[in-house]
């Protein structure tokens, strides 16, 4: 049997409900029930953002994005963020490295988004891409990133959330 991704079910306040959700059945998630998705902005000390290019066989093929994904059953958002960061980029971090940016529910989605930012030393960090997930990566200066994210080359749903919370990102990144 293939490896089935299992998620905890949550209410709109982030309280766990007493049943599981299954990635392959995400379309069956009832209204008012959610799973948690984490996003991690990896930022260098020089205010560059690490972006990765999605695999051609995934949704949003070959579009650029930051690191993220659904947390698994039993994970906290922080543990899920660290796992996703390691899986997709090979970067190891600690919970204390995560800076919380926002959490939100976007109307029409069964997801609660938790967004974090991590600061790395690019010269001492090796990026290792995940097979079948990402095909390329690059660092882009934050001011250029703010322009690039508005293009069709970038995943639109991430763009929409960034645009809502751009001021929070500015406050954190410009203070690095």
Name some characteristics of this structure.
3-stranded antiparallel β-sheet, 176 residues, alpha+beta, 4-stranded mixed β-sheet
Account of the 3D structure:
The strands form three sheets. The protein has a four-stranded mixed beta sheet with strand order 6-3-8-7, sandwiched between helices. A three-stranded antiparallel beta sheet has the order 5-4-9. The protein has a two-stranded antiparallel ribbon with strand order 1-2. The model has no long low-confidence stretch (mean pLDDT 96). The protein has three helices and nine strands, in the order ββββββαβββαα. By secondary structure, it is an alpha+beta fold. It has helices at 77-89, 142-148, 156-173; strands at 6-10, 16-22, 35-44, 48-54, 64-65, 67-70, 99-105, 111-120, 134-141.
Low-pLDDT runs? none
Structural class: alpha+beta
Biggest beta sheet attributes? 4 strands, mixed
In terms of DSSP E residues, the strand content is 25-35%
Q: In total, how many beta strands?
A: 9
CA-based gyration radius: 16 Å
Q: Can you list the strand order of the major beta sheet?
A: 6-3-8-7
The average pLDDT value, as a whole number, equals 96
List the helices and strands and how they pair.
Elements: E1 6-10, E2 16-22, E3 35-44, E4 48-54, E5 64-65, E6 67-70, H1 77-89, E7 99-105, E8 111-120, E9 134-141, H2 142-148, H3 156-173
Parallel strand pairs: 3-8
Antiparallel strand pairs: 1-2, 3-6, 4-5, 4-9, 7-8
